[in-house]
C-alpha cells in the first residue's frame, strides 16, 4: 500500500481571469500539518480546493496519494434528514468503518442531536456536524477551510483533540484560518508571499 501524502510544487492559481498566487510549494507527509494564512481574497480557499482536486492549478503540479476529506462553508448535508441519517449517507459513500460515525459524533459532542433535522441545527452545531463528516470519513488527508468558524471554546477544544488524534495516527491536515487553530507545530504558508503583483504582468 502506498504511503499517503500531498505534494505541491510551483502551484499557481487564476480565477475569473485574474492571477491570484504563484510559486506555492507544500510537502505533506504523515503526521504533518499546514496552516494557510493571509488576508481575505488572497486565495486560501482556492488553494484548499486545488489540494482537493476540485480546482485545477494554472501552473505547477499537485501529487495526492490517499483520500481527502474536505470541509468549507458549504455544509453538504441533507437539510431535511435527521443529523445521524444525513451523516450516515456520507459515511456509506466514504466506506467508513462501521463504528467510525459513532466515534466521530462523540468526538464532536453531537450524540444528543442525532435525531434533530439538519435544518434546525445552530451555526456551531452545523460546523461540528461538518467536522464529524470529515472525522468519520477515515481519509488520511483533511482539508479544513475555516474549521473554527462559529465554534465556541468547548467545540474548539474538541476540534483540537480531533486534529491531534488524526495527526498522531499519521493523518495530515491542511487548514485555512483567520483565528488561532489548535495545531501543534504546523508549516505556516503565508499566502501574501505568493500573491501575484500587478507589475509582474508588465
Ligand atoms: N468561482 C470563482 N470565479 C471567479 N473568481 C473567484 C471564484 N471564487 C473565488 N474567486 C475569487 O478568487 C479570489 C480568492 O478567493 P478565495 O476564496 O480563495 O480567498 P480566501 O483567501 O479564501 O478569502 P477569505 O479569507 O475571504 O475566505 C477572490 O478574489 C475571489 O473573488
UniProtKB/TrEMBL annotation:
<keyword id="KW-0067">ATP-binding</keyword>
<feature type="domain" description="ABC transporter">
    <location>
        <begin position="6"/>
        <end position="202"/>
    </location>
</feature>
<keyword id="KW-0813">Transport</keyword>
<dbReference type="InterPro" id="IPR027417">
    <property type="entry name" value="P-loop_NTPase"/>
</dbReference>
<dbReference type="GO" id="GO:0005524">
    <property type="term" value="F:ATP binding"/>
</dbReference>
<dbReference type="GO" id="GO:0017004">
    <property type="term" value="P:cytochrome complex assembly"/>
</dbReference>
<dbReference type="InterPro" id="IPR003439">
    <property type="entry name" value="ABC_transporter-like_ATP-bd"/>
</dbReference>
<dbReference type="Pfam" id="PF00005">
    <property type="entry name" value="ABC_tran"/>
</dbReference>
<dbReference type="GO" id="GO:0016887">
    <property type="term" value="F:ATP hydrolysis activity"/>
</dbReference>
<dbReference type="InterPro" id="IPR005895">
    <property type="entry name" value="ABC_transptr_haem_export_CcmA"/>
</dbReference>
<dbReference type="InterPro" id="IPR003593">
    <property type="entry name" value="AAA+_ATPase"/>
</dbReference>
<keyword id="KW-1278">Translocase</keyword>
<protein>
    <submittedName>
        <fullName>Heme exporter ATP-binding protein CcmA</fullName>
    </submittedName>
</protein>
<keyword id="KW-0472">Membrane</keyword>
<keyword id="KW-0547">Nucleotide-binding</keyword>
<dbReference type="GO" id="GO:0022857">
    <property type="term" value="F:transmembrane transporter activity"/>
</dbReference>
<keyword id="KW-0201">Cytochrome c-type biogenesis</keyword>
Amino acid at each position: 500500500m502506498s504511503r499517503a501524502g500531498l505534494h505541491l510544487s510551483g502551484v499557481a492559481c487564476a480565477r475569473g481571469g485574474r492571477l491570484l498566487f504563484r510559486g506555492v510549494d507544500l510537502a505533506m507527509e504523515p503526521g504533518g500539518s499546514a496552516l494557510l494564512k493571509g488576508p481575505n481574497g488572497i486565495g486560501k480557499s482556492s488553494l484548499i480546493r486545488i489540494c482537493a482536486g476540485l480546482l485545477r492549478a494554472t501552473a505547477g503540479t499537485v501529487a495526492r496519494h490517499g483520500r481527502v476529506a474536505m470541509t468549507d462553508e458549504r455544509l453538504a448535508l441533507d437539510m431535511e434528514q435527521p443529523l445521524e441519517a444525513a451523516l450516515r449517507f456520507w459515511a456509506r459513500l466514504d466506506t467508513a468503518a462501521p463504528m467510525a460515525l459513532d466515534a466521530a459524533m462523540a468526538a464532536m459532542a453531537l450524540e444528543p442531536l442525532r435525531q434533530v433535522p439538519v435544518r434546525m441545527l445552530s451555526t456551531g452545531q452545523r460546523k461540528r456536524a461538518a467536522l464529524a463528516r470529515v472525522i468519520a470519513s477515515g481519509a488520511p488527508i483533511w482539508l479544513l477551510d475555516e474549521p473554527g468558524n462559529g465554534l465556541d471554546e468547548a467545540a474548539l477544544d474538541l476540534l483540537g483533540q480531533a486534529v491531534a488524534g488524526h495527526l498522531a495516527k499519521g493523518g495530515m491536515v491542511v487548514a485555512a484560518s483567520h483565528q488561532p487553530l489548535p495545531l501543534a507545530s504546523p508549516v505556516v504558508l503565508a499566502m501574501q508571499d505568493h500573491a501575484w503583483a500587478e507589475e509582474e504582468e508588465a
